[in-house]
């Protein structure tokens, strides 16, 4: 049976950090793939101050059985005090892709 695909979204303050963290998660077989997006402008309030920063979004692809471990490891590797780490199940996935994804995370 194929494990359900899960997507994890996060942002980094530097492209190099995003790439290194993704490489670590892939090498540890916690995620199968990482998509790096162009820099984005983030606007938010932090400690009462309005902030506007350039961030580097990353979409990580994993499975339901690896999602919690991937998110915990991501949090440890991330340089932010409170990183945005969001996940959701990819309920409607191409079966061939879901199978490929599962096989990438097998020991």
From TrEMBL:
Pfam families: CutA1
SUPFAM superfamilies: GlnB-like (SSF54913)
Protein family according to the UniProt entry: Belongs to the CutA family.
PANTHER family: DIVALENT CATION TOLERANCE CUTA-RELATED (PTHR23419), FI09726P (PTHR23419:SF8)
Protein name: Divalent-cation tolerance protein CutA
């Amino acid at each position: 049976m194929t494990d359900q695909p899960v997507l994890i979204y996060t942002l980094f303050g530097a492209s190099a950090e995003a790439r290194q963290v993704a490489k670590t998660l892939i090498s540890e077989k916690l995620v199968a793939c990482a998509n790096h997006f162009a820099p984005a402008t983030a606007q938010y309030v932090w400690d009462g101050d309005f902030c506007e920063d350039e961030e580097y979004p990353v979409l990580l692809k994993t499975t339901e059985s690896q999602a919690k471990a991937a998110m915990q490891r991501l949090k440890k590797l991330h340089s932010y005090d409170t990183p945005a780490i969001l996940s959701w199940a990819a309920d409607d996935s191409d079966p061939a892709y879901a199978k490929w994804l599962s096989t990438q995370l097998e020991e």
